[in-house]
């Protein structure tokens, strides 16, 4: 099969002939029909750059069709439409059994960013599997606990985005922050995750939603998803937390940081009203410590984190697909570009320079 291989950090991906082994016990092989380009893929390639993780096939936001199943797989059969999950749901560990989290102990043991026993080889070398999924490829092999079966009528070139960005932002507002009707919210960063967070705030009944970004071109798009006000930190000579406090009589009820920048995380927390404000860290980074003055928390604010929007994948993803099919969730509006897998480096450039919301790649162009 063809796949986009990252041979080393900070270099363009290369389309290569890659061998993908048949699925082993409890695994399925998926034909990838569509895969989105997410900022986390760029983070691994250009920011964290852990040399031991390369060569690697990136990609983790996708949809496809089960091609074959390994021994012991009863939940899936060839032909099923599915979305691979970078957060597993084994349904057996203490985390899966708790309604309080979507973390899965087995999933982290299995993947920890890369699958311990990848099914990919290229030029005689093992290729690491990113987040247990690796979807910048025509086929991938995934453990059955990291796959969600979805409605067979779902258009895969659209619902692939539910596999990461849309659930991550929307769920951060609805599941993690638990935004209440009539509340005031601020969303920092208007990429796909931020726009999904705006949509989640609106769905939860927020009356005012401040969209915060240094790129004013993003406001029109944010309006589509429910933003009521746009704030560009560059327009002010004082901290954005102070600006928002003045606009909201002391601060917003909820803030969501969707950038992955520790300074923005601090700003988002300090933009919340004291007493009951809740700030959720959604953007991913492992490179820096996050800090604030203790009084910010002592005064009654809550600082929370959210991964994949708190959705348990096998349960939540099919429901989100149903919500889209029932016209209760915007998905098409996130897609600004459609490209083929061999244009993957063009898609990376678009995202690097903020020229897209989501690019969807087709590994099997006609």
From TrEMBL:
Endpoints of the signal sequence: none
Residues of the Enoyl reductase (ER) domain: 8-361
Family membership: Belongs to the zinc-containing alcohol dehydrogenase family.
Cofactor(s) it depends on: Zn(2+)
Cited InterPro entries: ADH-like_C, ADH-like_N, ADH_Zn_CS, ER, GroES-like_sf, NAD(P)-bd_dom_sf
One annotated GO molecular function: alcohol dehydrogenase (NAD+) activity
Gene Ontology process terms (BP): formaldehyde catabolic process
A Pfam family that the UniProt record links to this protein: ADH_N
Domain of life: Eukaryota
Protein name (record): Alcohol dehydrogenase 1-like
GO cellular component, one term: cytosol
